[in-house]
Amino acid sequence: MEQDFKDKLSQDKTLQAQVLDVLKGTEVGKAYAETIAKNYFEFIKILTNCTMDDDLINGFFKNKFTEDPKYSKPVSELKFDYNTVHLNFKCHEKRDIFNCDCIKYAENPLQLCSHLVTAIDHIFRSHSYGDNFWNDSNRMKRGLENLLRENIEIILDRLDITEEHGAIKDEHEIMDFISGTIKTKNNS
């Protein structure tokens, strides 16, 4: 019976609204809402670090799915007009976790495309990735952290930055890169 209720709750928007109305009046409901809001804010901060501004805006406000997303935790397939996103949070490497067949992502896999933003946001909000387990054992968060880590490694490799005796060699190259990135972002 409990599983039937959970299944109906995941599908029925009216029931979701009724349950939220009941919960927001309780201390547990308020604490849960605060947890979700805090975790969603952290989630958006992570996305802003690995997405261009226009893709972030398009991902949140413009993209629409052409079919209902296919989801089998932790693997998802989400279809758009001409593109398909595959998310697999069982994997540990960026290219295996986040995959979109659009040209923009193929040309610059250091940045999430708008399709990936839409897909990841949808999965986060509709499948409880922002609940109390966000900080502990959350596969989505681990995947996003892997994305950022691998991107940093790629950038450092491209800058030919190496370690020498535990310290970063050619620190001025990193500072030049960061300074140039900030200037570019401020001018756009």
Secondary-structure element order, N to C: HHHHEEEHEHHHEEH
- The percent range for helix content is 55-70%
Spatial strand sequence of the major β-sheet: 1-2-3-4
Q: Tally the helices.
A: 9
What are the low-pLDDT stretches, counting only 5+ consecutive residues below 50? none
Largest sheet: 4 strands, antiparallel
**Structural Rg:** 19 Å
Tell me briefly what this model is.
With about 190 residues, the protein is α+β, with helices and mostly antiparallel strands. The protein is about 60% helix and about 10% strand. It has one domain.
Note down, in words, how this protein is organized.
The chain is of the alpha+beta class. The chain has one domain. It has helices at residues 2-11, 13-23, 27-49, 53-61, 94-97, 103-107, 114-126, 139-158, 171-187; strands at 70-72, 75-79, 84-88, 98-100, 163-164, 167-168. A hairpin with a 4-residue loop joins strand 2 (75-79) and strand 3. The longest helix is centred in the first third of the chain and has 23 residues, at 27-49.
Q: Which descriptors would you attach to this protein?
A:
188 residues, four-stranded antiparallel sheet, 11% strand, 9 helices
Task: Give the topology, please.
Blueprint: H1 2-11, H2 13-23, H3 27-49, H4 53-61, E1 70-72, E2 75-79, E3 84-88, H5 94-97, E4 98-100, H6 103-107, H7 114-126, H8 139-158, E5 163-164, E6 167-168, H9 171-187
Antiparallel strand pairs: 1-2, 2-3, 3-4, 5-6
